Amino acid sequence: MHAFPLSRRAVLAGAAATAAVAGACLPGGRAEAAEPVAARAYRWRNVVIGGTGFVTGVLFHPSARGLAYARTDIGGAYRWDDRTGRWIPLLDHIGWDDWNLLGVEAMAVDPAHPDRLYLALGTYAQPWAGNGAVLRSEDRGATWRRTDLAVKLGANEDGRGTGERLLVDPRDSDVLWLGTRHDGLLRSADRGATWAPVRGFPAAPSATGQGVTLLVAAGRAVYAGWGDADGGSARLFRTLDGTTWEAVPGQPSGTAARVPIRAAYDRHTRELYVTYADAPGPNGQSDGSVHRLRTGDGTWREVTPVKPGGTGDGGAADTFGYGGVAVDARRPGTVVVSTNNRWAAVDTLYRSTDGGRSWRSLKDSAVLDVSETPYLKWGGEEPKFGWWIQALALDPYDSAHLVHGTGATLYGTRDLKHWAPWIRGLEEASVRQLISPPTGQAHLISGLGDIGVMYHDRLTASPSRGMATNPVFGTATGLAQAAARPSHVVRTGWGDHGNGAHSHDGGRTWAPFASQPVPAEDAPGPIAVNADGTVLLWSFVHGDGTGYAAHRSADDGATWSEVPTFPEGAVPVADPVDPARFYAYDTGTGTLFASTDGGRAFTARAGGLPSGDHQFKLVAAPGRSGDLWLSAKENGLYRSTDGGAGFTRVESCRTSHTLGFGKAAGGAAYPAIYQVGSTGTSTAVYRSDDGARTWVRINDDAHQWGWTGETITGDPRVYGRVYLATNGRGIQYGEPV
């Protein structure tokens, strides 16, 4: 669901790349730099949107009233604070180098020790990603101890919404089990400090399959689900003594029971409920079932509420799998299951009070209130009860307190009828673009992955207008504002009727471009608007990295013409003062291109700059013509004051990943500069009030949010306020204390 760059490291250009660069790096590719001034005291908060991402698991503590945890695919884990009615983020301390650990594969609590919490972390299991880790806490996630694993985990890969792969053994709180995707089952005998493979586990790891999909305690037994398609007919294994594992006899087989998704144990009836699908999900499921195992005598019974098949709304095939399952700790035989990937008839929850003999759909009587997060109306539609429902949890102290996750939120109910987002404090947006306008009601406009563009009329409440409409975007690919005419804003992305739009009231309302270039249909990319709003320049990049010729419009998107001299796939940047000037940085050759005729033609200027992938950031300083700054990642920061004819290495920076500007400090002659980079050894967030001669760190070790290299901008109206894009923890904004 969420995108993330496959590599954060540039391909270094080498020592020869110095042709038009003054102040080049010292040998080794890095300039000498002093350690930064100690961090200035900043208060960091989320710009409120509310959710916006896939909550992959929710876990109520079985023996501590009001205590719950949530995990996400890319945005860390949270603890529910019942006193304040908010989710508390637990992994914001994870730093730049450990970005892969912000995806939570699984979590576990100890029923006998309510303060203990365990998390298995690792966003990707791909060769370019680092290994996973297990964090263990004795104080509900306030502090952690960490064990690095020798295997990879995949919290943002297929199967991320399956059951918890981490479990405290029901016989011994010192023993933990961890199921992996490609390396079988691991065991720890010292509360997660060390781990070893379970040699007797009967399922062989597969390089392409799902491996262990769930771990669940049923009395003193432990059950493990196995999701590999080539693993034979056995999909569920168990150990009765903590040593010997065996396939569970009599288990269901066939397509509808190919992958065990989740399981829940009713301790009153000693029955285990298991949901199945033909694929791990959340996408790609078309068949599924629900089965009940009587653990005392080994009797299986199918209790599927509705079998996939038939037709849904509009005559489409009603295909789906089953996802979440939860049992009522207070009422024997009461169980809730969810459908998943059901698009024709729409996903629902089914509830049974008689052990699965009969079921009732909770969606049919549901009343949804999304007033606190209006974006869930999806541009004016009725809010959706659910999709990608794999996270499902029932409060063990309240039979009517039921929650389920979707691809964008958590819904909760206290009466099984009225539902509202249970999401305060949980922010998971993957942020792509940020603009802080110099005038108008909104101090921020954002472009996001999956949920388009937001106009933030308040920073402390979800945008009242919801998602930008006309058109509604999925993922935004471009967002720009005319510097001398800030009422004119343009945006691009994957839209429901057109992939580009313009606004003439500062981003409050929108209209689609009257036409769009052919490449925009399948490769909408970044866009720029010149200083007075009379020219648009739209670049196009396919998902595989293929670039196309940029197009220009001088009539607000009514007609477009190709610009063959623009470097394909580059990000266009408008001069903030001169309407005739545009710039673009060719990352493949390390060359700055410029136009002085309103974007009709581009010519090469400075060359020999760092080159590599597409993560370089070219930014124009506000209020100054030709004042350009280039964040070149590990190669540092470069500046041009002559419109790109030449660049000088900024020696105060060792690395620079993204850069932005805000209101100048009192008495300062230059705007405040904000940067994600390094002036010494650590990657952090910095501010400079003297034109990048000196820097102060403004975040701290408790506020790092993993990978933050996409974009940053200061507020042009409030000195010291900065807005920071994260990949999974939404928009962070900081202000001096």
Automatic annotation (TrEMBL):
Keywords: Carbohydrate metabolism, Glycosidase, Hydrolase, Polysaccharide degradation, Signal. Residues 1-24 form the signal peptide. InterPro entries: TAT_signal, WD40/YVTN_repeat-like_dom_sf, Xyloglucanase_GH74. CDD domains: Sialidase_non-viral (cd15482). The keyword Hydrolase applies. Belongs to the glycosyl hydrolase 74 family. This is 1,4-beta-glucanase. The lineage of its organism: Bacteria, Bacillati, Actinomycetota, Actinomycetes, Kitasatosporales.
